[in-house]
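R.M. (postdoc): so does anyone remember the format we settled on? I'll just put the structure tokens first.
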């Protein structure tokens, strides 16, 4: 089923996460690089992702958007890669994968990018509550074991790891020792390095 996999991306986008996941699977894929504001908003790409954003993944007739969904999809589609956890660890796998895609990203965007900090009353309304609560929960996720779903690296670590590494690099996540240890652990993986090299080469072109 690996024939016909296309990654729509830009090397300065969340597409880096999807490429990392693809490199972890070891499957062959093609890359289509899109530009912000032009080819991402062109009718042919909007037919693939109406949001006009990257990444998107085409696998045969299947189209997947959103980084967390791409990670989960590829782990299921290519079980031989071993990126889906054992049944006993599925709860943590789904919990932290979607925590990072929902509350974590929302809290970071609001508090550290837009400067929006909900007061005590509004914290009951927003899904993440507060930035501090989210960061404390993330600390639990990365320090309870070597990886977020037990002692084996999974697709959830691609997404959570990318969020942590990016946040440490750009100052949107507190520089706690447990975050740095986790980021160092996942970013030492050969697939991460291959993906980063491929995207960095595209930036230089």
């Amino acid at each position: 089923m690996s024939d016909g996999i296309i990654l729509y991306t830009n090397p300065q986008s969340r597409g880096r996460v999807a490429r990392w996941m693809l490199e972890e699977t070891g499957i062959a894929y093609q890359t289509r690089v899109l530009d912000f504001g032009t080819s991402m908003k062109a009718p042919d790409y909007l037919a693939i992702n109406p949001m006009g954003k990257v990444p998107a993944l085409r696998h045969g007739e299947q189209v997947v958007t959103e980084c967390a969904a791409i990670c989960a999809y590829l782990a299921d589609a290519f079980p031989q890669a071993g990126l889906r956890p054992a049944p006993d660890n599925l709860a943590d796998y789904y919990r932290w994968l979607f925590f990072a895609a929902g509350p974590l990203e929302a809290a970071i965007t609001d508090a550290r990018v837009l400067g929006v900090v909900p007061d005590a009353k509004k914290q009951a309304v927003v899904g993440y509550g507060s930035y501090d609560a989210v960061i404390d929960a993330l600390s639990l996720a990365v320090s309870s074991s070597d990886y977020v779903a037990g002692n084996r690296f999974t697709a959830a670590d691609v997404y959570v790891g990318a969020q942590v590494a990016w946040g440490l690099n750009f100052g949107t996540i507190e520089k706690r020792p447990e975050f740095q240890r986790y980021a160092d652990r996942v970013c030492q993986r050969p697939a991460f390095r291959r993906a980063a090299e491929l995207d960095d080469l595209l930036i230089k072109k």
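R.M.: ...and that's the designed sequence above, right after the tokens. Also worth knowing: The chain has two domains: 5-82, 87-191. The first helix runs from residue 15 to 25.
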